[in-house]
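hey so u asked for the seq, here:
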Amino acid sequence: MAHESTGAIYTAAGANLAIALAKFVGATVTGSSAMLAEGAHSVVDTANQILLLVGLKRAKKPADARHPFGYGREVYFYAFIVALLIFLGGGIFAIYEGAHKIRHPEPAADASLFGYALPGFWVNVAILGFSVAAEGYSCFVAMRAFWAEKGDRSPLSAIRRSKDPALFTILVEDVAALIGLVIALTGVVLADLLDMPALDGWSSIGIGLVLVGMAIFLMIETHGLLIGEAADPEVVAAIQEVVGAEPGVNHVNEVLTQHLGPTDILVNVSLDLADDLTAGEVERISTRLDRELKARVPDVTRVFIEAQARASSERVAGREKAGAVGG
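ran it, structure tokens below
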């Protein structure tokens, strides 16, 4: 999914840069608060896409002595920073700007282009219309990539279980941007029709609330990935199936998995092996399981196999469970 994520990010970055320039021009010539808030939102989105690209690139660095499991979680860190920037740079700024416009309402000023006077209202409508078209295309690209990944799951369930924050961050950003544009367009139109410039400020606050809500959602999702999430239950079940079918394995005590990156899964398996196996046979079983697990689940990159008697494993699990309850 890395290729799909990168393509969606480049598309979103290009669209947001063009949209930001158009919005700031509109805000400068008309004085629209909603337009200024939307411009700031687009600048933040463009910076966010650059950060996600940096995260994806840094995540590809090979493992070294200091980071023996690689740098895959870099993308999770940068995705969390993106959510934080959306909250502060987009949401809070839009709410502040909207509150200022409500206290000091002013109608949209007319613009001048090559000596011709243009009504500020139509300038804002034209820019927002262009923004809807550009953002809609970006959202379509992100949605197509996301749909290819989600399978039969519902969109919300797919986001909650996705291990690729770059892709779902772009998708959520684009959806929030389209909602914000609809709010901005509604505010601009109502402010002109009802001759109530303060409605422009209220639309800016609405945009800010959408961004704050979206940022909090992204923070929650990326936080779980950042501290370490297990692989999907289907992946764990496949691992158990492969390991359980191996001759010489009496019992699968425990399967522990953790995502070190979107396509980088660490697997630790505790097995109760037959007592009559020789050291050479145990070694061959370990080698065979490592090969078969990586073939069955391509995202599995590291496999650790622990030979442990079933009774001993259950005692350890019982003590850990008791400690968790006591804590």
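The mean pLDDT is 84. Residues 120-150 form the longest helix (31 residues).
lmk if thats what u needed
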